[in-house]
Amino acid sequence: MRRALRDNGLSLAFFAIFVLALVGQSLAGWSFNNEELQQHGQTTIGYLAFVSSSAFLVDVAENWQSEFLQFSLFIFGTIWLIQRGSPESKIPGDEGVGTDEDQYVGEHARRDSPLWARVGGARRWIYSNSLLLVMTTIFLLSWLAQSLGGVVVANDENAEHGLPAITWAEYVVSPEFWNRTLQNWQSEFLAVGAMVAFAIYLRQRGSSESKPVGMPHHVSAEESE
Prior knowledge:
- By secondary structure, the protein is mainly alpha-helical.
- It has ten helices and no strands.
């Protein structure tokens, strides 16, 4: 048990923080939502009713889709683009998907390589791109959930103001939807770009996201091996 916790400490720690943050968001959102209802002279709702509401779904999915879009684009971008000196990038000249020998697939697979890396055909292609496929799928599902919940919230607000309901297709091309969406996207892209650039010149001793402290700025971690 202790070894399993040690070997999976990074993922377990972040999943635990995620759960705590999500619970905290739900409690704060529930309290804020009931304050607004009271201000408008409406009946407050219970916690379970709030966390199953479209309003809560929109807030959660809105952040999820931007995070997974960020990682999907970063995974794809790092196949073909490089940033000299950054530990987040391959070295110049290594752009592309690499050879079978580099990737330990097919006849170059190791004895302990995953099964789908050793076989050919569609299974190898799927496994070779599985990280990007899964990340992109989660992004698309989160985006769909955000839009479906958002149109319900928008129509509730329209009903309160005596305005006609709108369709899902009308909502996903509306300024409101793209204002909420793009303000999340721009912050994610800025964070990724800053991490790539800062890691060229700045260090964090002991972190796998940083080059060794004494490595020259123009040298990447891979070039030092």
